[in-house]
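Practice record 12: protein with S-adenosylmethionine.
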Amino acid sequence: MDDQQFKQLLDYFQYSWVGYRKVRKGVKKRISRHMQQLRCPNINEYLKLLDTNKKERETCKKRMTVSISRFFRDRKLWLDLEKEMLPDLIEAQKDKLNVWFAGCARGEEVYSFMIVWDRLKIFFKRLPKLELIATDMHPEYIDKAKDGIYTKSSLKEIPEEIQDVYFDRKKGGNRFDVKAAIKENINWQVLDIFSGPPGSGFHIVFLRNNLLTYYQSHLIKNTFTQIIESLSHGGWLIIGSHEKLPEESLRLTRNPSTLWAYRKEATNRI
Ligand SMILES: C[S@@+](CC[C@H](N)C(=O)[O-])C[C@H]1O[C@@H](n2cnc3c(N)ncnc32)[C@H](O)[C@@H]1O
């Protein structure tokens, strides 16, 4: 499949060429296999079939999904969360902290947060109650996230001594199972970001490497506005380190240290 044909497919779903450009080789392979299975000789036939066949359209969408993630992706963010952003929020927000992970894939980002949170117990006598909602549109990823079983490659940014605190090693050290203590109280849900936030008053929203990368800009406008509205004043929106906010992102101030974390303007309360 050449790039022109691939662009036809991206346009069909209103996905972004800029977002897919770097990862297109693997995605094209998955789509070409799907086309072969369906005996579609070219992209036009394939798109015609997707138009009328919902099941295969869903299969195609799944194959178009990029689900790469890893623990502590964008290391600087996690250091700043541990040293500044979370301590600030904890000071201001004594009772409860609401966090939403939008497009959480197989849970690496969620458990990274739980590890940081657990480490904060050393510094704070009392932490607010945590309410975590972790969502993804693919039920298979949510099931995997709930299992919390990983291979060594997803843990490459975690120092060995920390690995042993939060994971049980299985199968001769090649399999890492998240320990039960950091699996508690996570509300996992299947949810398409385009159907809107799963609540409101979030103190942190993780919106990394999905909406702002893989979709065409006109498509994300309303959803992005709803996400900002779901943030509490003084709360943080965290995006991927290579992502840009849509132009109309008023009321958000960049963190001078982690440049891809943005704070919603504070009022007296958060
Ligand atoms: C590249 S992974 C990023 C995972 C994690 N946020 C990170 O940054 O490491 C993108 C994830 O977003 C999910 N996703 C993409 N579009 C979505 C949508 N419209 N609604 C919900 N999840 C979506 C995909 O299923 C995939 O698991």
